[in-house]
Amino acid sequence: MAQLWGGRFEGETDRSAWEFNASIGFDRRLLKEDIEGSIAHAKMLEKQGVLTSAEASEIVRGLTGIYADVYGGALVITDQYEDVHSFVEANLIERAGDVGKKLHTGRSRNDQVALDMRLYTRSRVIEMDHLLRELRSVLLDLMKEHIDTIMPGFTHLQKAQPVTLAHHLGAYFEMFTRDSSRLEDLYDRLNVCPLGAGALAGTTYPLDRAYSATLLGFKGPTRNSMDSVSDRDYLLEFLSALSILMMHLSRFSEEVILWNSNEYGFVEIDDAYSTGSSIMPQKKNPDIAELVRGKTGRVYGDLMQLLTTMKGLPLAYNKDMQEDKEGAFDAIDTAAACVSLFTSMLRTLKFRKETMEKSAALGFTNATDAADYLVGKGVPFRDAHGIIGRLVLHCIDKGCALDDLSLAEFKTFSDTFEEDVFDAISLKTCVEKRLTTGAPGRQAMEEEIRASEEILKNDWTAAYDLADMTEKEKSDE
């Protein structure tokens, strides 16, 4: 059992207590961040004269060698170490000798782990926004393709008014854009460096915390050393943002599931994102959409776990805070997988345009427009509402749509109806007349699509190259 704190203790740690206390099983994915932070700390110590240039070079060489050997397979992270920090330090000392023992000068595991989690979270926030940008790009392509595809809009799961598929998908584009903006806000708040805060009260060594922050790409150091090591707000914010994102994905998944049913028949899910039944040969199940919907609760649970862990902790660091990692890793991995798979499924969906338009017609979604037609002819709206309500009942009895009635039938309910009623209540007219900002009419939708293109073009992570990001798969080894 390799540990960094044995001097104070005379007896051996109980094996089960050691295993209960250790975090190497999950914090090994922070190896890249731990090495990056250690390299920055060594360079800062050299700048401040705490380390010589030769010592700093030897430490950096050892750290980069550890990183290369782990990812090259020559060095394995085992559970003989308490955590990833002790793994790195022990292997550094083995390679660099006494020089390696100087790396921890002016540093505590408290500010070290706080730094590693911020670096890791910062990368994952950027990665998540990239995934969201790809999802919104697919949505935007579909909006352009289906700007004239008529479908029923719903309230209370009842057909309400005719819209277009572009309009419906545009609503989700807006939701995911808000998710992106939450990530941007979060990134700004988390992008400060806790390195140099020590255990809780800083250090007597002449550290240049601003220099460390600059080396690691932070906008500056954290301002209070106690808060630096005990703050997990950025993780809570990230998990909260992911929970809202998953809620949006779950709502969308629910609609895909409904639309895929025989009763709706609006879409067909590609075979690559469906499964069958072991007993019912006719089945084609929307498993990916259902799993996304189901995994939403899992991300919610991770958020609640961390909120509950943090709610009663006094300042500053407490071992409880080790529990921040597993739930956070799970939520991040789960949300990333859900966004990625949902995007691929959405890209391959086949929309049945004729079925959607027929559903809009048989659902009397043009009833409001029929009432507006009478109002335009001078009939008070409340009277018009009653006339159209009786017309709908008549159509239900006949099993037809309003558009299927003859002018003579219309006139039995009101002499105000004329031949122009058919144009007024056609689904195309009903949609095209809606030209206010945000409405489904073609002119309004074209403007919405142009605005959405600009949003994607100017997305806050557009300049970040994912090729430079940590490969999550490596971190999970």
What would you say this structure looks like, in words?
The protein has helices at 15-21, 24-27, 31-47, 53-72, 84-96, 109-145, 165-190, 209-215, 225-230, 233-260, 287-310, 324-348, 353-362, 367-376, 381-398, 407-411, 421-424, 427-432, 442-457, 472-475, and strands at residues 150-155, 158-164, 267-268, 350-351. 39% of the residues are buried. It has 3 domains: 6-105, Orthogonal Bundle (Fumarase C, Chain B, domain 1), CATH 1.10.275.10; 110-147 and 163-202 and 223-354, Fumarase C, Chain A, domain 2; 359-451, Ribonucleotide Reductase Protein R1, domain 1. It is mainly alpha-helical and 477 residues long. A hairpin with a 2-residue loop joins strand 1 (150-155) and strand 2 (158-164).
How far apart are the first and last residues' alpha carbons, in Å?
A: 21 Å
Strand content: under 5%
Can you name the CATH architecture of the largest domain? Up-down Bundle
- Assign the CATH superfamily of the largest domain: Fumarase/aspartase (Central domain)
Q: If you consult CATH, what is the topology of the largest domain?
A: Fumarase C, Chain A, domain 2
Q: What percent of residues adopt helix (DSSP H or I)? A: 55-70%
pLDDT < 50 runs, ≥5 residues: 470-477
